[in-house]
Specification:
This protein has three helices and no strands. It has 88 residues and is mainly α. The protein is rod-shaped and about 65 Å long.
Length: 88
């Protein structure tokens, strides 16, 4: 049996344990980059423009998905931590 302090348990159940938040950050950054390219760049080729638009939409959808999963993981970790602290 190992003894763990309450602050250590809080660290375990913090935001740092979710890989979804990492992917959220990557996808959100990519979406911002694609939006900047579309608004400031002078893209004349329709296929290139369509590629940037589809990349923006894809990264936006993935950022939304990973953001929801990250929040869900955080809430689940906090709930589990509360159960551990209460002795259930």
């Amino acid at each position: 049996m190992h003894w763990i302090a309450g602050t250590e348990l809080d660290t375990v159940a913090g935001l740092s344990n979710s890989i979804h938040l990492t992917f959220f950050g990557l996808c959100a950054g990519a979406a911002i980059a694609f939006a900047v390219v579309l608004t400031t760049g002078n893209i004349t080729d329709p296929m290139t423009h369509a590629g940037y638009v589809s990349a923006l939409i894809t990264s936006g959808v993935l950022a939304f998905y990973f953001g929801i999963r990250g929040v869900r993981d955080y809430r689940l970790a906090k709930r589990k931590l509360k159960e551990i602290k209460n002795g259930k």
